[in-house]
Amino acid sequence: MAKCLVQLTYLEIEKCKRMREIIAPENAEEMEDLISFPKLNILRISDLHNLGRFCSGNYSIEFTTLKKLDIENCPELTGFMVNTGTDVTGGLQPLFNEKVAFPSLEQLEISGLKKLRIIWHHQLPADSFCKLKNLSIFSCDKLLNIFPSYMLARLLTSVEELAVVSCGSLKEIFELGELNMEESHAVVNTMLRKLVLVTLPRLKHLWSKNPSGILTLRNLQTVEAFACCNLQNMFPASVALGLQQLEVLKIQGCTMMKEVVALEEGDEAVHRFVLSRLSTLKLRDLPRLKYFYPQKHVIESPMLKDFYLDLRNSFKETEGERLGKFPVQLPLFSIKKV
Q: Which segments constitute the Disease resistance protein At4g27190-like leucine-rich repeats domain (predicted)?
């Protein structure tokens, strides 16, 4: 039946309480077949509380023209395609594996997948997710990371907006564990423009280890981090030095944050942070924050207009600290140019 839906452009399935899968195998002869939705543009799946998979069996599925995919409040969903004979990544069932292709997908929203631990298989079709621009992830309590090392080059050269909210197990955004920083000469120039992180209680760092200049955020314009109570810093210095396009930086309720920009091991240089387009800077409810950057530095932000510091319980001066040349005489900034 699914093979006959070649004219389908929009598919929405909602509140079907007993549905366990959307496409079921019809007979043994069809087990090796390819299913294609050549005209489907939008797919929404929501409030299917018993849905365990989109499809089972040995099918491959192509969503050739799909632009938008929403998967919401499907707490039992573990994989889009589930086949017991398919290799899993690190013993974990990924949401998307090599049996499903999204060559044109631009918007992906995932929410309320309570059992989801990883999103991407390590061997996806070559063109799958290469056009993804907007990625939103909400209330996936067991999710471990967003961008594993094997997906960095594929996703970060296309994704422009990322929002991650209420993922209680998330420890990092960028997993760099398999990258050899000393041998790698390829720089991943990301397209990321907007980053929003909200209520991620186990997130300590955005990166699993220092990106050491091989990953940049040169197109980043907006960063908002709220209620990430274990987040210790926002950027390593090597990334912060490339934030010339940054316009908005808001950090609130990150109660373990000690500095906005982290000192890298062995780095004693006096850095110049050129934030030439920064217009809004708000730092609020950060009781352990002591520095923007813990070494001597220069900040250039000639466009800064909206500036807010909540100083309660923050920026405690200790003996020997030099006061900065900043309107509020506290050692947050070493030197600031406006």
A: 1-78, 105-254
Residue 265 falls inside a structural domain: yes
| E strand segments, 121-241 | 134-138, 161-165, 188-189, 194-198, 215-216, 222-226, 235-236
Residue pair 249/278 in contact (Cβ under 8 Å)? The answer is yes
- For 183, the token pair is 């041998």
The values of phi and psi at residue 3, to 5°, are -70, -20
Q: H/E element holding 238?
A: helix 237-240
**What is the model's pTM?**
0.88
| 74 assigned to some structural domain | no
How many domains, in total, are found in the chain?
1
Distance from C-alpha of 61 to C-alpha of 55, rounded to nearest angstrom: 9
Neighbours of 144 (CB within 10 A): 19
User: In the structure encoding, which two tokens stand for residue 247, read together?
Assistant: 């316009």
Q: How far apart are CA 13 and CA 246, in angstroms?
A: 39
pLDDT tens-digit profile, the chain (338 residues) = 556 678 899 999 999 989 999 987 766 555 557 888 999 999 999 999 999 999 877 778 999 999 999 999 999 998 888 765 545 555 688 999 999 999 999 999 999 999 999 999 988 998 999 999 999 999 999 999 999 988 988 998 999 999 999 999 999 998 887 655 444 445 677 899 999 999 999 999 998 877 776 788 999 999 999 999 999 999 999 899 999 999 999 999 999 999 999 988 777 777 889 999 999 999 999 999 998 999 888 899 999 999 998 856 555 443 333 333 333 333 455 545 55
CA distance linking residue 168 with residue 336, whole number of Å: 37
At a CB cut-off of 8 Å and minimum separation 6, what does 333 contact?
Answer: 292, 297, 299, 324, 325, 326
Determine the Cα–Cα distance for residues 228 and 254; give it in Å rounded to an integer.
5
Domain membership of residue 329 as a residue range:
144-177+186-338
From CA 14, how far away is CA 56, in angstroms rounded? 20
Cα separation, 276 vs 241, in Å, equals 11
- Kindly state the tokens that stand for 320: 């020997």
Residue 314 belongs to some domain of the structure = yes
In a domain, 249, yes or no: yes
What letter represents residue 232's amino acid? Q
